[in-house]
Structure formats: structure tokens, C-alpha cells
Amino acid sequence: MRVLVVEDEVLVAMMVEEMLGELGHEVAAISSHLEEALVLARTVSFDAAVLDINLNDAQSFPVAEILRERGVPFIFATGYGGRMVGDDYAGVPIVQKPFSLDDLRRALGRL
To answer: What is the per-residue pLDDT for 82?
Structure first.
């Protein structure tokens, strides 16, 4: 599976990339900024995405909307728990930071 990773912390993005590799997946692209993530969400071919909710001074919900329109499944990664996610995203898998390889495996399995 090819995965888009949207994460503003470089070390966390590297960790997610490594975990995805261990799970047999390929990272299609990594973005740390909302504007770049929006472009990637519209133009790059991938099978799923891992979205950090908070990106510096922005949130990744506009990216989630593009993915939803394209029919691309995604998971949210957050250090704030499910309270950041409204009813619009009920049912979207969430991994709580810091998360383990098994947490990511389970979340991807729910897609």
C-alpha cells in the first residue's frame, strides 16, 4: 500500500515512515505543511494516508476532506485524543501519539 504521511514533526514523520516500511507499505509522499499537503492530496496517487491533526498553526481537516472526496481512506494521528475530531469524522481510525507499530497496524487494518 502507498501511503501519504502528513506530519509537522520531522522525527515523528521519520518514525511513521520506518513503521510503514516494517509493515510492508511504501510512503508515497511526506508533507509537513498544510498547503503542500493539500496539493499532494489532490495530485499524488496513494492508497491511504496518515494525517497529524495539528500542523503548526493549522489543522489537517481540509486534507481529510479532499481524501474523502477522492475515496482515499485515512487515519488521524494526534496527541490530543479523539476530542479533536468532530462527528464529521466518526469512524475514522485515530492513533494516539506516541503510538506503537501495533497501534499503527491496527489502525491501518481498520481502513
So the answer is: 65
Comparing CA positions, the residue from 11, 16, 10, 32 lying closest to residue 105 is 16
Cα-Cα end-to-end distance for the chain: 11
Query: How many CB atoms within 10 Å of residue 33?
Result: 13
Count the domains in the chain: 1
CA-to-CA dists, residue 44 to 3, 4, 11, 70, 97, angstroms: 10, 9, 23, 11, 26
Q: Residue 102 and residue 46: Cα distance in Å, rounded?
A: 22
What is the domain extent for residue 53?
A: 2-109
Predicted pLDDT at 2: 98
**Consecutive sets of 10 residues in the chain, 111 residues long: mean pLDDT of each?**
97 97 98 97 97 93 97 94 78 94 97 94
- Please report, for the domain that includes residue 27, its CATH number: 3.40.50.2300
